[in-house]
Amino acid sequence: MREAWAGQRRSVPYQLVEVTGPSMVPTLQNGDWLLVQHVRSAADVREGDVVVLRHPLQQDLLIVKRAVERREGGWWVLGDNTFVENDSREFGTVPDELVLARGRGRFRPPREVQRSVAGVAGWLASCVRPLRADRSFSRRLRAR
Questions:
Q1: Among 27, 89, 24, which Cα is nearest to 62's?
Q2: Percent of the chain residues topping a pLDDT of 90
Q3: Can you name the residues that pair with 70 across neighbouring β-strands?
Q4: What was the pLDDT predicted at 28?
Q5: Which of 114, 139, 108, 105 is nearest to 126 (CA)?
Q6: Do 130 and 104 meet the contact criterion of CB atoms below 8 Å apart?
Q7: What is the DSSP letter of 13?
Q8: CA distance 117 to 99
Q9: 26 pLDDT exceeds 70?
Q10: In contact, 17 and 34? CB cutoff 8 Å
Q11: What DSSP element (H or E) covers 126?
């Protein structure tokens, strides 16, 4: 994830970060921009939220995952892409202090130059999406 995180957690409530990697496909793709809201405490995060957190084993690395459930000691987080296991299946429960922000919306930049009105309209219809925890999370569970 590309971002300018240092010093902004307290002064700016919202921030844009660029997503890199495949762990949240299909919800987030490599190159998407995520609007995040910084959290003050674990009470600001709900089950199903997309969250930005420090990797528990490599704390200089920020990752994006879905907060699946509250457990003793923190959050159980999973990526939406079941083929990528860089989540709580690998590193266990994430302590509350490592959860930094929750996703509020996604912007998908165009992947190529659109040369038709239909292409531009299609991109406009899909480029900005809110991240609704209840909607995307329940769809993912039903698909399993």
A1: 24
A2: 62
A3: 75
A4: 93
A5: 108
A6: yes
A7: S
A8: 41
A9: yes
A10: yes
A11: helix 117-127
CA atoms within 13 A on the CB side of 13: 3
Could you write out the three-class secondary structure of 51-95?
A: EEEEECCEEEEEEEEEEEEEECCEEEEECCCCCCCCCHHHHCCEC
- In the numeric block, which tokens belong to residue 33? 């921009």
Prior bond of 26 cis (ω within 30°): yes
Chain centre to alpha carbon of residue 139: 16
Could you give the CA distance from residue 71 to residue 96 in angstroms, rounded to a whole number? 10
Q: Could you give the CA distance from residue 76 to residue 137 in angstroms, rounded to a whole number?
A: 14
Q: Amino acid letter at 139?
A: R
> Over 60: is that where the pLDDT of 141 sits?
no
What is the DSSP-derived secondary structure letter of residue 98?
G
Mean per-residue pLDDT over the chain, rounded:
83
Tokens standing for residue 122: 């299609």
Structure tokens at 89: 């299946």
User: Is beta strand 33-38 parallel, antiparallel or unpaired with respect to 74-78?
Assistant: unpaired
Query: pLDDT per residue over 54-88, tens digit each?
Result: 999 999 999 999 999 999 999 999 999 999 989 99
**Weakest mean pLDDT among 3-7, 18-22, 85-89, 101-105:** 3-7
